Amino acid sequence: GESVGLHLPTLSVQEGDNSIINCAYSNSASDYFIWYKQESGKGPQFIIDIRSNMDKRQGQRVTVLLNKTVKHLSLQIAATQPGDSAVYFCAENIGSNYKLTFGKGTLLTVNP
Amino acid sequence: NAGVTQTPKFQVLKTGQSMTLQCAQDMNHEYMSWYRQDPGMGLRLIHYSVGAGITDQGEVPNGYNVSRSTTEDFPLRLLSAAPSQTSVYFCASRILAGGNQETQYFGPGTRLLVL
């Protein structure tokens, strides 16, 4: 079946740098995408979402970009901080939002 | 509000044993769901419910049963545990209307080891 995947399983950045986490999806019918952050020993936490009728959405220090042509999603974190160290998951949904399909996750490590 | 609570936090079972993972939320959310998370993989949906008395299968339902007798509780039952069910289990809940995932809350997880 179709699934959501990530280009890079790990990402290491210096504190203060910008981070970019990528995600590829293969289901062209997906119309809603979410980024989650999961810290060690905790459940996932919502970061930002975007619908397929948009190509960019900004939050506090985070931006999600959606390129439907190449089925690519990215999460940009500005001025990365040690507290941003976590695993980041993208997830996709079609239609009713009852079923989310998660990617495998990217481990972001922020070095002081 | 306590949010989404899960018990137990950790459990060891022998193959063939049964148990129930508890999940409760006090936010009056209609939608509740169970996921499992395995090393190197994202969360996979096991079962979900859109309201009391209504449940449906997710991506990996085999070996698991659920029921939703009240809005608050959504227990996950393993009738005969297998080593392949060793995983971390997360319960989540959110409001149903509007389809906004921003209001979905995850519990702290239950770590299950099946020997």
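The interface with chain B takes residues 4, 32, 34, 41-46, 49, 89, 91, 93, 96-105 of chain A (CB under 8 Å).
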